[in-house]
Amino acid sequence: MKFKGIIFDLDGTLVNSLEDISDAMNTVLTGLNYPTHTYDTYQYFIGSGLRNLVSKALPASNNSEEQIENCFDCMIETYREVCTIKTKPYEGIVELLDNLASQNIKLAVFSNKADELTKKIAAQIFPDYFDAAVGLSTEVLKKPNPFEALEIGKNWNLKPEEILFVGDSDIDMQTAINANMLPVGVSWGYRTEEELMASGAKLVIHNPSDLIEIV
Predict the structure, then answer these.
(1) What is 5-16+88-214's CATH number?
(2) Helix residue spans in 48-169 (DSSP H)
(3) pLDDT tens digits for 111-123?
């Protein structure tokens, strides 16, 4: 089957945003006199949305719902100002998008990052590539809920079987399976190839150009 559309995760798939996310959260923690975390630790906090990351980053003794909510608001405010300072596309991503666009492959982003920030990063770093950039607007629609992915497919007038879902996490693979799209993992992100395969990835690619062969 020729695939006609690709939905990409954002963080760990298209862009390396680890340092901007980590720096913003550590700024919030420092302001509260809480311990901070290394980039390596934050690598395993990313993937389920910023609210979940805030919960994981806070000390266990200060992890009430009220504290999480307050720190989440501070995190969003802080991260909004720095979200494109260190965040860059992975090597080969821009060339990949150029190639796919030249083939008239439909392209979109679906992230668990807040919708406002997903749109901002996609627009600033990848102008004019994506038909849609959808982030998290409400917790109930968070990946692995496939609703937004299926809506993108409907807007394209494509069947789920005609769409690749590309991501770097177990949550992305689960989303693809739930949407009946082909789950493709990327090994350059925040999770290992073994984790991706165990989560249902049908293929794991090691270079962005590998995706062209699949399409």
Answers:
(1) 3.40.50.1000
(2) 50-57, 65-82, 93-102, 115-125, 147-156
(3) 999 899 999 999 9
Our answer to whether residue 9 is catalytic in this structure is: yes
**Residues, the chain:** 215
- The ranges assigned to domains in the chain are 5-16+88-214, 18-82
pTM recorded for the entire structure: 0.90
Q: Where are the alpha helices (DSSP H) in the chain?
A: 18-31, 39-42, 50-57, 65-82, 93-102, 115-125, 147-156, 170-179, 193-198, 210-214
pLDDT tens sequence across 128-173: 899 999 999 998 999 999 999 999 999 999 999 999 999 999 999 9
Catalytic residue of the set 9, 20, 170, 172: 9
Q: Is the pLDDT of residue 48 over 80?
A: no
CB 75 within 8 Å of CB 56: no
Residue 133 structure tokens: 């950039």
Please name the amino acid found at residue 163. I
Query: Under CATH, to which class is 18-82 assigned?
Result: mainly alpha
